[in-house]
Amino acid sequence: MFYYLALAAVLFAIGLFGVMTRRNLIGILMSLELMFNAANINLVTFNRFIAPEHIVGQMFAIFVVVVAAAEAVVGLALVLVIYRNWRGIGTENISIMKW
Amino acid sequence: MTEHSYLIALLPLLSFVMIVFFLRWKEKVSAGFSIAMILTSWVMSIIVLIETLARDGVPYEWFYVFVDLPRFAPEIGILIDPLAAVMLVVVTTVGASVEIYSVGYMHGDPRFSRFFAYLSLFLFSMLGLVLANNFFMIFIFWELVGLTSYLLIGFWFEKPSAADACKKAFLTTRIGDLGFLIGLFLLAIYAGTFNYNEVFDIAASGAIPTGILTAVAIFIFCGAVGKSAQFPLHVWLPDAMEGPTPVSALIHAATMVAAGVYLVARSMPLFITSADASMVVAVIGLITSFMAATIALTQNDLKRVLAYSTCSQLGYMIMALGLYGVDTANGHHSPGFYAGTFHLMTHAFFKGLLFLAAGSVIHAVHTNDIREMGGLLRKMGRTGWTFIIGSLSIAGIFPLAGFWSKDEIVAAASNHPVFMFFTLLIAFMTAFYMSRLCFMTFFGEPRDQERFDHVHESPNSMTYPLMFLAFLAVTAGWVGLPWLSHGFSTFVYSGEPYHAHANYWLMIISTIVASSGIVFAYFVYYKKSISSDMLAEKFASLYKLSHNKYYLDEVYGIVLLEPILSLGRFLWTFDARVVDGLVNGVAWLTMLWADAKQWIDKWIVDGAVNGSGWIVIQGGNILRFLQTGRVQFYTLFILVGIIVSVFFKLDYAPTDAGLPQTSIIVIAGIILIWFVGRMINARERAAQAAKHEE
Fold first, then answer.
1. Of B646 and B358, which is predicted with more confidence?
2. pLDDT greater than 60 at residue B656
3. Residue B434 and residue B525: Cα distance in Å, rounded?
4. Which pLDDT tens digit goes with each residue over B407-454?
5. Which residues in chain B have Cβ-Cβ distances shorter than 8 Å to A2?
6. Largest Cα–Cα distance in chain B?
7. What is the pLDDT of residues B274-316, one digit of tens each?
8. How many CB atoms lie within 10 A of CB B682?
9. How far apart are CA A20 and CA A43, in angstroms?
10. Is the peptide bond before B232 cis (omega within 30 degrees of 0)?
């Protein structure tokens, strides 16, 4: 169980790091996917090792995958609009909310 | 109709309201409407009088108690007895004549409509006063009448003399009204009711001590003294002549001043319980009558002579009523009551006529001074002849109205030699000064040719009322012919009806007295065979006394006004120094206190408010750099927040450090260090950008 969890933590950290540091919106979205999947691994792991008689964790993981797909759709659509407006998808460009 | 007699009073009120609110801008409509209303009232009054005659004078009473308290239950009600019915007809007749006359007299006045509104309000008050069935209500209308009198005397308030006169009239009558009010208080205390009949029943039953009854009667008489211009409160009436002449005719000759006589006649059952009170009434009446008659002999203002004549005649009536009270209290029979009320009626007609005719003369000549008139009969036939008829009537010439009523007053005085003597003397003087007016005004040669040339007869709206009243001045007395078995004397009575019987000796004596007055005036002022200047010189002191109205105004000035004015001045000084000082001192202290508070407000309260604002602005200036506009920067905060909350949630203890906790702390530490670095970096860049922009 430790290894699974460690994998999930590493994966999550990588995703987090990607979200924090990437300047490309596509990259940020991809890193988000990594974080989703780290959480999914956790869910499945806990389901497997703590309460194997139910499959709630696995169900939830699938649910998360579905939501993630929807989120990706919305996110990519936003990216497209942003690209059209700014001719670029770098996060440093879209700082109109700055002080 | 009798049960709807309240309408007689309400119609003029309707006219007043309509004129004030709706018709004011249309002068002719205003006048027409008020005349229509008073004519309706007049017709109704005549019907009421006929119905009262048909009932043999049985009183009709209707009332409604609107405040039902144990000792104070004022009522609204009407009482139609013969006296009230006669008064209604008198008031509406003179009122209608005066309103029609005013159309001509007030023509072109800028406040034409208002004049008719006031007249209507006055007629409402006067008719309400006549209709009232209790002392409370009569007092209310009494005051209303006083108010309208004030308004009408001061109708031409641009004239200072008119403004002064209306104040004088109001204040002088108010003194009498105060007495009336005290009388009402005594009634409320001792009788517990204001209703005429109940009060009279209680008075007759002897439940109230005689002393109190005398006081009540005298206090009520005080009200009459003020309103009917009796000595010593008569001084307002001559000055009231500053008002328009129709007002003088209506209010100060025929109706309002008669209200006092009416009040005494109304309260007669009270007076007959007290011979003392009645004696006071009779003596006051005699003094007034004699004094006013002597003053009237020497005045040169046409209206003032008539005013003093009114005073004198009212004194006559009051005296007759007082003598009736004295005789009845002593168990004798007396015609005084009926004589007084009879004279009240006839006097209203002929004095109203005289005033209206005088107004017509003044309207044409534009002066009040009879020394500037003369020979006017040639130019003003109708006015002149009606005036002469009125003069003969008031002088008591057979068979005009004044003869019959004055004769009864002489008869009433016949039991009291002193009164008898003065009554005849006054009758002589009355005949003399009225003839003097006639000769000076209408006969002889004009003394002011220029004025005389511009004189013309007044319009029909003025002369027709004159002729109508002249007709009444001739005939009104015939209802009281002593040969009638059901004449005025058996109709209007208090207690037992008095059956008049012709006293030929008295008739002859009074006719001789009146004629001698006229003849004397004829020689003095027409034939000039007796010089009036010679008479004035021969009786210089008497002449001066009369000409200066017994110096009563001056005496009042010294005895009453001067102390009151000096008290007023003292109070004014006191007010200016002490009261104003106090007030201003308080204001000064308040301002000082306000200054202190202003300082506190400015520096402490405002300082706190602005200070907190300043702190917030400065804080914002620092913290605004957190808003980087970068999504990832915000995510970082979320992350740090999560780490911190997880840190606390896991109840971290270093001793049993598990891997998750340790790793989380390590990650959080790294991220925070990184964040601070970024933060400093961002500020430096912002500063550089600002420099760059400059």
1. B358
2. no
3. 12
4. 888 888 888 888 888 888 888 888 888 888 888 888 877 777 777 777
5. 659
6. 153
7. 888 889 899 999 999 998 888 888 888 888 888 889 889 999 8
8. 17
9. 24
10. yes
**pLDDT at res. B657:** 53
Question: For the CA atoms of chain B, what is the radius of gyration?
Answer: 42
Please write the tens of the pLDDT for every residue from B252-276: 887 888 888 999 988 888 888 888 8
Q: How far apart are CA B440 and CA B421, in angstroms?
A: 28
Q: How close A10 gets to chain B, by Cα (Å)?
A: 10
Q: Where are the domains of chain A?
A: 2-94
**Highest CATH level, class, for A2-94:** mainly alpha
Task: Answer whether B629 sits within 8 Å of A98, measured CB to CB.
Answer: yes
Contact A98 B632 (CB under 8 A): no
CA distances from B359 to B102, B242, B367, B463, B599 (A): 10, 12, 10, 11, 73
Comparing CA positions, the residue from B327, B549, B304, B339 lying closest to residue B423 is: B339
Per-residue pLDDT tens over the stretch B166-224: 888 888 888 889 999 999 888 888 888 888 888 888 888 878 888 888 898 999 999 88
- For residue B240, what is the DSSP state? G
Distance in angstroms (rounded) separating the CA atoms of residues B169 and B181? 18
Least confident of B6-10, B287-291, B663-667: B663-667
CA distance linking residue B682 with residue B689, whole number of Å = 10
Q: Which of A14, A16, A17, A20 should one mutate to test binding to chain B, selecting the residue with the greatest count of B CBs within 10 A?
A: A20
Report d(CA A14, CA A34) in Å as an integer: 8
- Could you give the count of Cα atoms lying within 13 Å of B673 in the half-sphere of its Cβ? 5
Indicate the range of A22-36, B237-251, B619-633 predicted with least confidence.
B619-633
Query: What sign results for the dihedral spanned by CA atoms B31, B37, B41, B42?
Result: positive
Using a CB–CB cutoff of 8 Å, tell me whether B629 touches chain A. Answer: yes
How wide is the angle at C-alpha B342 spanned by C-alphas B100 and B501, nearest 5°?
A: 145
How would you classify residue B332: left for phi > 0, otherwise alpha for psi between -120 and 50, otherwise beta? Answer: beta
Q: Is the peptide bond before B399 cis (omega within 30 degrees of 0)?
A: yes
CB of B638 within 8 Å of a chain A CB? The answer is: no
Nearest to B663 among A2, A9, A96 (CB): A9
CA dist B414 and B408 (Å) reads 10
Q: How confident is the model at residue B121 (pLDDT cuts 50, 70, 90)?
A: very high
- Interface mutation vs chain A, best among B624, B625, B628, B631, most A CBs within 10 Å: B631
Residue with tokens 């003088």: B248
B631 contact A CB<8A: yes
Sign of the C-alpha dihedral, residues B83, B88, B93, B97? positive
Q: Cβ separation of A9 and B630 shorter than 8 Å?
A: no
Residues of chain B positioned with their CB less than 8 A from the CB of A19: 632, 635
- Kindly provide the ipTM of the predicted complex, given to two decimals: 0.73
Structure confidence at residue B41 (pLDDT) = 92
- Asked if the C-beta of B635 comes within 8 angstroms of chain A's C-beta atoms, the answer is yes
Overall average pLDDT of the B42-48 stretch: 92
DSSP B132: B
What mean pLDDT comes out for the span B383-405?
86
Rounded distance between C-alpha atoms, residue B295 and residue B546, angstroms: 5
Say if the Cβ atoms of A16 and B625 lie within 8 Å: no
Distance CA B219, CA B222 (A): 5
Alpha carbon distance B91, B261 (integer Å): 14
Name the H helices within B414-558: 417-442, 449-454, 460-475, 488-491, 504-521, 532-538, 540-547, 552-556
* A56 pLDDT tier (thresholds 50, 70, 90): confident
